[in-house]
């Protein structure tokens, strides 16, 4: 049994991945509802077209909402590319098959990538330059989302305020007409 940090890491990553793979891996036939990140790391990766092994999962990339956004696939020398390569495969381009899912001690995953070798080799290479660009892009997208949400809220408030003003004026006019009719 594990204690301390490894157990916490395992539990935390498993929880983070629980919903993310279901959403991210849209091609998956039967979502399992809960996935073990510990078992997903180092899972074998295969091509969808010919079920040929092309590497293993090296890393799991999460977004600000802690959803799985991509997997990093280490292809080793399996793709006729010089040297080891690690590629970023975005959610929606892979699915996860579960084997022996009823027993945590025996659970195994197979990651199926829905791309050809040529398409995989065109994916971003997982390196520091990619990491910095992706972090900056994600930060900017988050800021734009926050600004858009704030702007939408302000627009909604302004619209509601105008509507309430119009209703108030209409009620005021009805009140004056009622008072004039009563006199």
Automatic annotation (TrEMBL):
Domain named PRC-barrel: residues: 35-92
Question: Where does the signal sequence lie?
Answer: 1-29
Q: Which UniProt keywords apply?
A: Signal
Could you tell me what this protein is called? PRC-barrel domain containing protein
Nucleotide-binding as UniProt keyword? no
Give the top-rank taxon of the lineage listed in the UniProt record for this protein. Bacteria
Q: Name one Pfam family in it.
A: PRC
């Amino acid at each position: 049994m594990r204690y301390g940090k490894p157990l916490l890491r395992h539990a935390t990553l498993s929880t983070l991945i629980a919903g993310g793979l279901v959403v991210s891996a849209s091609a998956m036939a039967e979502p399992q509802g809960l996935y073990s990140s510990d078992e997903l790391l180092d899972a074998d990766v295969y091509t969808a077209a010919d079920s040929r092994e092309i590497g293993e999962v090296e890393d799991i990339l999460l977004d600000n909402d802690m959803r799985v956004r991509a997997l990093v696939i280490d292809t080793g020398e399996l793709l006729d590319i010089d040297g080891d390569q690690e590629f970023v495969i975005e959610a929606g381009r892979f699915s996860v098959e579960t084997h022996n899912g009823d027993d945590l001690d025996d659970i195994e995953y197979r990651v199926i990538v829905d791309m050809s070798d040529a398409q995989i080799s065109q994916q971003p290479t997982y390196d520091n330059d990619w990491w910095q660009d992706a972090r900056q892009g994600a930060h900017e997208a988050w800021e734009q989302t926050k600004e858009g949400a704030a702007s939408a809220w302000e627009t909604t408030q302004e619209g509601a305020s105008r509507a309430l003003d119009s209703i108030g004026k209409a009620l005021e006019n009805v009140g004056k007409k009622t008072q004039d009719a009563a006199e």
